[in-house]
Specification:
By secondary structure, the chain is mostly helical. It contains 4 helices and no strands.
């Protein structure tokens, strides 16, 4: 008896992929779902190849003042949290 093909064993046509994409557009996840997905990825290390690709994509780009401020704020909060945990 032949087994059913698994999802990674066949390719979807471009037309099918486009229909699936259109069906998902405009939908948003519940905050609980987003939190679960986020938690599932936390602490998972990236491969050296992935890290290199991210680094190459950011190389030479200037940060906006708003982006710099957000980084400063995030680092401040992190330092405060670490200080509280140490005590």
């Amino acid at each position: 008896m032949a087994r059913k093909k698994r999802s990674h064993e066949y390719k979807l046509s471009e037309e099918t992929r486009k229909r699936m994409s259109e069906a998902q557009k405009g939908k948003s996840m519940k905050p609980e779902t987003r939190a679960k997905l986020s938690a599932a990825r936390k602490g998972v290390p990236r491969s050296p190849e992935a890290r290199a690709a991210i680094s190459a994509g950011k190389l030479g780009k200037k940060r906006s003042p708003a982006e710099c401020q957000a980084i400063r704020e995030g680092m401040r909060k992190r330092r405060e949290r670490l200080k509280r945990e140490k005590q």
